[in-house]
Amino acid sequence: MSHTGSVLCLNLLLFLHVVAHFRNNAQQQWPVPYRRVDSRPAADYFCEALFPFCPTGDGDGRIPSMRDGDVISVYRLQTPVWEFKYGDLLGKLHIMHDAIGFSSSETGSNFTVEWYELFQLGNCTFPHIRPEEYAPFWCNQGAACFFGGIEDLHWSQNGTLEKIGEITGNQFNDMAQWVQDDNETGIYYETWTVRSDPSPNATVWFESYDCSQFVHRTYRKLTELGAKLSSKSQTNYTKIYLFSGEPTYLGNDSSIFGQPALKNLAGDIRTFYHTFRPHQTFVDFAVSLLEAYEKVVLEKSFYLYYNFEYWHLPMKPPYIQISYEEVPLP
After folding, report:
1. Which terminus of the chain has a lower count of CB atoms within 10 Å, N or C?
2. Catalytic residues, which ones?
3. Which residues cross the membrane (predicted)?
């Protein structure tokens, strides 16, 4: 081969290497985008809530219309998770629930809108391992709930009830339609935010999709509609972090649990989630804690279910962290 031919061949190889590099990078986006659906499916009859979802409101997130010229006050609402049952106990750990309140100046009516798990946090974080089904069974839907009134004591006693702005009735109606669209297409709850490390410049592998994220999305939508929002206090929100190296994509239910060649992987995923199963005795729970420590800390391994697909996380110290951090209003 001539010198010119060798140079051309080398340039071609370098070009193909660069193209492959960019193609591989383009194939995976970090953080992995949350996957929306065309419409919300019905929940499976197997999934049961310890406390009924949206017991006094509209579980489909439907919101009544306001007169265009009405002036609607907007309230930032925050309280410890399960405050109605445990008071400020989880608040001491900065595990908080977020919502938004509205008050009509024309009618004097108050409203609350929030987004949370249909079947409680545990079901949204870990699946059920059912003997009759090889694949783990998830009850991880979350949804918007709209109901009349703002329970002042519930929000203010151990949390936050603060007016942060005003909007017109027309802006409220546009927001209400957006909430229904958002609720119809964003259907599953995600507890974890997964990052490469705790530093400010860390890579975010996966974002959570929870009550606070709904509040942030709604604030951004109100701002797009022309609202001016401001707070006199620091606007902090709960984040539950996992820390890992770059995740590895594994596949979905059919590609993992329907393939004999992957039975070892399928069995390992089932064993991992069996550790976190609900309704354990005290002795079983103590054993499960040791098993979880062995798997996550000693073996540095975690299986994440995101977008109806499984990922393997090579865990890194500090492994898990609950953070209560500021997210400014838009």
Report:
1. N
2. 97, 211
3. none
